[in-house]
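The authors assume throughout that readers already know how a fold can be written as discrete tokens. What matters is that the chain and its backbone geometry are given together, residue for residue. A single example would do more here than another paragraph of explanation. For illustration, here is how one protein appears when written out as sequence plus structure tokens.
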Amino acid sequence: MVDSVPHAGFFGHPKGLGILFFVEFWERFSYYGMRAILVYYMYDKVINGGLGMDQTTAASVASMYGALIFMTGIIGGWLADRVIGSRKSLLIGALLIMGGHIAMSLPFGVPAFLASMLLIIVGSGLMKPNISNVVGGLYDKNDSRMDAGFVIFYMSVNMGALLSPFIVGALQKNYNYHLGFLAAAIGMALALIIYLIFNRRSLGLVGLEPTHPLSAAEKSRYSKMIIGAVIAVAVVLIAAQLTGVLSFRTFSVVVTVLGVILPVLYFTTMFRSQDVTATERSRLLAYIPLFIAGVMFWSIQEQGANVLSIFANERTQLDMNKVFGFNYIVPAAWFQSINPFFIVLLAPVISALWAKLGKYNPSTPLKFAIGLLFAGASFLIMVIPTMSGGHSLYHPMWLVTSFLLCVIGELCLSPTGSSVSVKLAPEAFSSQMLSLWFLTNATAQAINAQLVNLVAPLGYANYFAFIGGLAIILFVLMMLLNRWISRHMEGIH
């Protein structure tokens, strides 16, 4: 299949990388643009074009949304491998995502919102894992350009995430929410048009067919299982609606339970498998504290899009005339560009630092510990301005500093987590181990759906101190467990 791909045409890389770069840029533009104003749309008054939810519910729903996107990625990867191939999964996912953003741009209130969430969750689950698979398929396994190709590709993620809050946030501030959501839909439509025009001549045969298609017997068995599952879910939803149990609060509890159970089941299946050797089981044991550390980190990082997003809108001085002396009111959504900005700025610095340290490069557990330290510090520093209580507006540099500290932690922990997941994976579960790593984010956001309920009763200062303090406690535990983890990694560093 690699032979069917034009091997040049995009800065010395396969021509198809340029198409996928463009598609991913606009998909991330649409996702992060929509997310930048989503929580405001949910809790703003109906008269202002919002849905009129309370802030706690809005923050919880935003967390559920993020968790379900990562959970459905497991299903999307399975469908691509066993049923329809990565390219069809990518295309169907992109169409659903565009439909979701279009639904959100329509002024039909909660029904349009729910339809949009469903479409984007399913679409992202189909697209997110499979576009990376297609990128990898452009290269031979021994092609020295592959790592650089992925670096170029992932730059599209941060470029889309950096640009979109500025555009979507300005549209929401100066016009309305629906125009902002429409901009996200247009971005996704651009990606689709370019993909449909150029994919066949640029991507060859890569990802057209499933890599491990279902046998006839498996098709029959899985069809029955899926039909049974759909019927069961439908019955439960209907019963919940009739009894008055169905609500965002109930659904958030279900998502949280799923977020905890799924990784436990995933891990248990691998650990008890007869195909896993004693050495591989030892490495899986070492992976447990790393997974827990990852969940704690993403719990803090992902609150940038709900708790800190609300803080930016409600408690941060956005009038620059009162801060820096020039007359402009900054849209609160612009704070969502801070994270990708610092990632683009600091990623080369952190990468160069690890290379410079050479043999003194911190071990994997220590990098995880450092990530937790900075994540905890990013919340603890927010205790300083909020200790006085009241409803005064705080200097925006507090939020900027918080995002900066969390990004440093992210650059220490996130790339290391992806890498060590591949290195520690049992041979029989090599691809599924990376799915397990993605579940750190799903689990974190599922837990966040409950944690955000503590903001109102605790107040910002106590809430930041509580979550930041948990991260520091885990940092200390990771430092204490450093040697144990390293020993059980059995030669992996």
User: Anything to note?
Assistant: The chain has two domains: 1-213, 261-493. The longest helix spans residues 55-105. The chain has 16 helices and two strands. The chain has a mean pLDDT of 90.
